[in-house]
Amino acid sequence: MTQLLAPWSRVSVALDILLVAVVIYQVLVLIRGTRAAPMLAGVAVVAITFYLARIGELTTLNWLVSRLVPYVVFALIVVFQSEIRHVLANVGRRLSFGRGSAREGHSYDDIVLAANLFSQHQTGALIVIEREIGLRTYVESGVPLDARLSYDLLATIFRPSAPLHDGAVIVQKERVAAAACFLPLSMNPVLSTQLGTRHRAGIGITEETDAIAVIVSEESGAIGMAVGGKIERDLTVDQLRERLGSELRRYMSPVTLPTAIAQGDESDAALDSPMRTASQQQRESDTSSSSSLGPEGQA
Question: Does the reported pTM lie above 0.90?
């Protein structure tokens, strides 16, 4: 019996080593480029110091370590709470195999069209798409809308003169749940100093949850997309559509983009293209009245 179990014991040892190596590799991949990387290095240095102290039979230091070790686990949970939450969210997302319908894909095309409009006119915008992890806490920080997601609604919300253009729009299941929402700012030290508050808020919400953030820069009009605490910048409209379709696990068919509006137009009029501003209507009425007077009236 012992001879039969001997090969399995060797296999189990190899499997054990392989699984531990995979876990360590996944942890290192997860924390690479985040604020947890230097913190983990510091923890490793402290652990090595304590180990050397135990080997060197340093009585006082060993006594101190034995008293502190029970609290170290709780301290690590507090320090790495964001990373732990992110890991658990990734595991839960991978276990869910549900796919959205084609109708849902068409709804999210409105986000792509709106991002194209904002990029053309350098209008700042931040749109957050909820996935598995709920965003109720952040929805309650803004103005509740519960309106159907549409291109016109997004264009109206992010108009520079609109009262709700500051803050983020949160989308839940093809509906705009709220606007002017406050989001947590990313404190990642490796982020570029060129990223402003809007970009850091978009990255911050994806660090805390599994949401997707679509960000349009007010300074350059560049389109960005943040997922999992990482941001892709300077995306084209087609690239944004492909990335959204990939992350949402659904096919998003190409759509016809609206034609660019002349640079001489006012920004509010450009964002409200079906409507004419009061000043334009006044100018047109003045022109028509002067033309109706004819030569005699002008004299």
Answer: no
